[in-house]
Amino acid sequence: MLTDEYVKRVYAQVEQRDGDQPEFLQAVREVFETIQPVVEKHPEYEKAGVLERLVEPERIVKFRVAWVDDEGKVQVNRGYRVQFNSAIGPYKGGLRFHPTVNEGVIKFLGFEQILKNSLTTLPMGGGKGGSDFNPKGRSDGEVMRFCQAFMTELCRHIGQFTDVPAGDINVGGREIGYLFGQYKRIRDEYSGVLTGKGLEFGGSLARTEATGYGVCYYTAEALRVLRGDSFEGKTVVISGSGNVAIYAAQKAEQLGAKVVTMSDSNGYVYDPDGIKVDVVKQIKEVERGRIKEYAERVPGAEYHEGCSGVWTVKCDIALPCATQNEIDGASAEALVAGGCTVVVEGANMPSTPEAIEVYQKNGLLYGPAKAANAGGVAVSGLEMSQNSYRLSWTFDEVDAKLKSIMETIVAESLAAAKEYGHEGDLMLGANAAGFVKVANAMVAQGVL
Ligand code: NDP
Questions:
Q1: Which of 48, 129, 130, 401 could potentially form a cystine with 81 if both were Cys, beta carbons 3.0 to 4.6 Å apart?
Q2: Among 106, 128, 244, 287, which is best to mutate for testing ligand 1, by the most ligand atoms less than 8 A from CB?
Q3: What is the per-residue pLDDT for 442?
């Protein structure tokens, strides 16, 4: 509920201006509902118009991406880059290639990114970008030509000190390689302008694993501090079978849990003996196939059509790692009915507001995306540092820094939750801790 007058007024303005961007409104509302005690304690934020400025991107670039497919036909997609907030560092955030991408989706992701990046403790502002290009069924050559066309325009707006994009849905190592190559060719500059690069050309060890591993480090720490518990012996349900899902599954298993499901946009697999992550990696990372093939290869595993059924599988811990709004109120009720007491978000905004209400009503341990999945961008920040130093840290060094950052995020979220009178509330704490740092920087830098 919005109760604070200043917060209500700014939210009404956002509704009026951006009423056609439901995901953006959802992200803003969730943050506004939780930062009211912070705004009430800091009247200087209203005086400096912090909220009005926070919800308005510093810049949005929207552009045509024309490219030629394998049949020689001209294809036209839309490209976007939202440079949301640079108060604490250069814009930083991934690129998503998916047919559902539009300005509102990129704005919701960019807005979340501001507070997420702040939570990592590293100096990174918030940004996000992408295209409605659908890489499914496209050849390597088509993906390369699309990436080159996309970067031909994007390269005017980014740079190692300005804006440093990375991957997101459907943008992995292959796409980052093509994007980096085109940037280098056009700008004649070899710099850390993108993160998630290949290890041969400036990438960081442990970046591929970082988001999924980070989700588990965060979950393990929250379980330890709030419940004196761990992953050991727990049954875990994971959605998605992409970058975040695969490495969350791998780490959860290393920490002693049994992961029993993974999914894609067609359906999910259930393996009562525990998902064999190497089989999923072969299907998804090497063959770019469908999760259905897992059940064809692993005896005892079942495949079910449709995505929402995954939340009806009995578990102790759920890690949604696919996409936004994948858990609605009914799916959240199904999780609770199946014994789930922990939901930690690997994907961005995977829970609808109704789902979050169900978690809260039933006392679940709920780890919100902008805190729990910050490990990816945190290691991207470490990749930027290594590029600047012109050296590479070992896997173990990066992994140790990642673990420490995730533990700090839990500690800072809990400290902020306590300070603002909501002890134990990881969502309020994450929003408050992330917001205060950005707000103070905005006040200090004057009206921009
Ligand atoms: P990938 O493209 O590697 O994987 C995405 C997975 O989610 C695939 O299994 C995909 O299935 C599934 N998926 C995508 N859209 C839908 C949909 N509409 N319904 C059901 N399933 C869907 O992406 P990532 O793993 O990188 O990203 C997953 C989530 O994590 C996103 O929300 C992203 O924003 C977030 N995230 C990613 C970070 C990173 O470092 N990569 C960092 C922080 C957050 P299919 O193959 O059928 O499309």
A1: 129
A2: 244
A3: 98
Q: In this predicted structure, what is the pLDDT of residue 188?
A: 97
- pLDDT for res 104: 98
Give residue 187's pLDDT.
98
Residue having the nearest C-alpha atom to atom 15 of ligand 1: 323
The pLDDT, as a whole number, for residue 366 is 98
Residue nearest to ligand 1 atom 36, measured at CA: 347
Q: How far is the CA of 242 from the centre of ligand 1 (A)?
A: 6
> Active site includes 136?
no
Last residue within a domain, chosen from 363, 389, 418: 363
**For residue 33, which amino acid is it?**
E
352 part of a folded domain: yes
Cα distance between residue 437 and residue 420, in whole Å: 15
Provide the whole-model pTM.
0.97
Which residue is catalytic, options 128, 197, 234, 258?
Answer: 128
Q: 300 and 213 in one domain?
A: yes
Q: Which atom of ligand 1 is nearest to the CA of 369?
A: 44
Structural domain range at position 11: 1-55+426-447
Q: What's 168's DSSP letter?
A: B
Q: Is 116 annotated as a binding residue?
A: yes
Low-confidence ranges of the chain (pLDDT < 70): none
Q: Are residues 22 and 92 in the same domain?
A: no
Is there a contact between 163 and 197 (Cβ–Cβ < 8 Å)?
Answer: no
Secondary structure class of 307 (helix, strand, coil): coil
Residue 85 belongs to a domain with what CATH number?
A: 3.40.50.10860
Distance 136 CA to ligand 1 centre (A): 13
Q: For residue 231, how many C-alpha atoms fall within 13 Å in the half-sphere facing its CB?
A: 25
Q: Which atom of ligand 1 is nearest to the CA of 348?
A: 32
CA 210 to ligand 1 centroid distance, Å: 14
Q: Specify if 391 maps to a domain.
A: no
Tell me, yes or no, whether 32 lies in a domain: yes
Residue 131 included in any domain: yes
Q: Are the C-beta atoms of residues 63 and 78 closer than 8 Å to each other?
A: yes
Residues with CB under 6 A from ligand 1: 167-170, 172, 211, 240-245, 264-266, 307, 321-323, 346-348, 373, 376
pLDDT at 160: 97
Query: Are both 51 and 63 inside the same structural domain?
Result: no
In angstroms, what is the span from residue 169 Cα to ligand 1's centroid?
5
Instruction: Count how many domains the chain has.
Output: 3
Structure tokens at 391: 């050296």
Between vectors from CA 87 to CA 153 and to CA 433, what angle results, nearest 5°?
125
Q: Which segments within 144-257 are labelled E, that is strand? A: 163-166, 235-239
